[in-house]
Amino acid sequence: MLSVIAAIMVITVITVITMSVLKPAPYTADEQGHFKYTLTSEKEGRMDWEGQVSGTAISGKMVWKKDGQDDIHYTFQGQEVR
Could you tell me which residue, 64 or 7, shows the higher pLDDT? Predict the structure, then answer.
């Protein structure tokens, strides 16, 4: 089973590649697998992540907000490959 923390770690690594100078990001996660957190960068703005882990699957959305540009909305989904 893909844990919520493992899923958040994978998403964070992807985001670190995308954004520079990230600040630590507290997150919330519940027993049903729902998680939510925000990553911020002085240079690149803010990324609001929200998703759901269920068994070996993950799905969710991310909104990238940056001054001077329209909000960019992403969705993601994945399944553990064995």
Answer: 64
The structure's pTM equals 0.70
Query: For the segment 11-60, what is each residue's pLDDT rounded down to a tens digit?
Result: 766 666 555 555 667 889 898 999 999 988 888 889 999 999 998 889 99
Length of the chain: 82
Ordered by start, the domain boundaries in the chain are: 4-79
Q: Give the residue carrying structure tokens 């064995």.
A: 82
Strands 57-65 and 72-79: antiparallel
Long-range CB contacts (within 8 A, 24+) of 44-49: 44/18, 44/19, 44/20, 47/15, 47/18, 47/19, 49/8, 49/11, 49/15
Dihedral, 64, 68, 70, 73 alpha carbons, nearest 10: -10
